[in-house]
Amino acid sequence: MAKLTVLGSINVDHLLQVAQFPRPGQTLEAENYQTIPGGKGANQAVAAARLGARVAMVGCIGDDPIGQTMKQGFEADGIDTSAIDSVPGEATGLAMIYVNAQGENNIGIWPGANGALGSDRVAAHRQAIEQADLLLIQLETPTESLIEAAKLAKAAGTRVVLNPAPAKALPDALLRHVDIITPNETEAEQLTGIAVANDEAAAKAAECLHQKFGIEMVIITLGKRGVWLSHLGAQRLVPGFRVSAIDTTAAGDTFNGGFVTALLEGQSVDDAIRFGQAAAALSVTRLGAQSSIPTREETLALIA
Ligand code: ADP
User: CA-to-CA distance for 275 and 271, rounded, in angstroms?
Assistant: First the structure.
């Protein structure tokens, strides 16, 4: 079975459901509170594992009880945790999330131990990268270590998929090692300077990512509309699945996890996108990050 390594952030999400977002200076009692495992790297690893991939995670937790709980959660999902470091004196990364009645969210993040995932730790876990068939990365850990990881992957013939989230400017040194990039509309605009307001603009942004950085495949995720695919000189919209959304947290993460899982199984790009979108659609019908990620069986049932 092909191997996936996900390198990235591990957070615990403190989620408060509120009727509306508190205004500055206002104190508001929430309707519901939950702590839910999150972090883009962890979400993508869990998505891929639940959806059928063989997954190893490279990341950092704090030396606190919640970090250990997160690690046990990965193990319960069948993820290889041998490249997860516990960082002395650091807290496990966390996010404070408000979800309002409309299902919109408002998020503040404290990186904590994720900030300790530097080049030295990446080098120490190089085997997990070099032995993988595909490396999946995002932007919630230090950029310098992402460059190191992508370089190691490239030299070893490991395919590199970058989900450039959350949006930030990136050096060419990272982008030139990327085979497949999966920005949402905001992230595509951040990288190209082109506002992805319609299909024509999506096509231009994708072309810019191919031309400027030599990226082979561009997939711009467009929320409930689906994704814009640009590959092998052709571009088109691939529609998503229609569901009734209650919380879109981790939609992109679930799409990425599902998409790479199907690619590693040897499915066509179209089928892999369909699989990723089905899983992501199911995830938006449920609350939270890892709590919302569906199983392979549920996903296949939606596609059938
Ligand atoms: P991100 O969460 O990174 O901003 P998107 O919002 O673009 O990413 O969502 C990623 C994918 O999740 C979409 O391409 C789509 O397949 C699926 N998705 C997101 N929102 C919905 C929705 N409301 N209904 C159905 N599918 C959705």
Answer: 6
List, by residue number, the catalytic residues. 253
C-alpha 264/C-alpha 183 separation (Å) is 20
Confidence (pTM):
0.95
User: Is residue 131 classed as helix, strand or coil in its secondary structure?
Assistant: coil
Percentages of the chain per state (helix, strand, coil), in multiples of 5? 40, 25, 35
The ipTM is: 0.99
Alpha-carbon span 258 to 276, nearest angstrom: 4
Q: Parallel, antiparallel, or unpaired for β 159-162 and 93-99? A: unpaired
Quick: pLDDT tens for 12-33.
999 999 999 999 999 999 999 9
Distance 130 CA to ligand 1 centre (A): 31
Task: Decide: 51 and 261 in contact? Cβ < 8 Å.
Answer: yes
Ligand 1 binding site (Cβ under 6 Å of any ligand atom)? 165, 184, 221-224, 226-227, 240-241, 243, 245, 248, 251-252, 255, 277, 280-281, 284
Determine which residue's CA is closest to atom 19 belonging to ligand 1: 223
- Residues whose CB is less than 8 angstroms from the CB of residue 141 and which lie 6 or more positions away in sequence, other chains included: 7, 8, 9, 41, 59, 60, 111, 114, 115, 117
Q: Which of 224, 225, 228 to mutate to test the pocket of ligand 1 (most atoms within 8 A of CB)?
A: 224
Contact 175, 203 (CB under 8 A): no
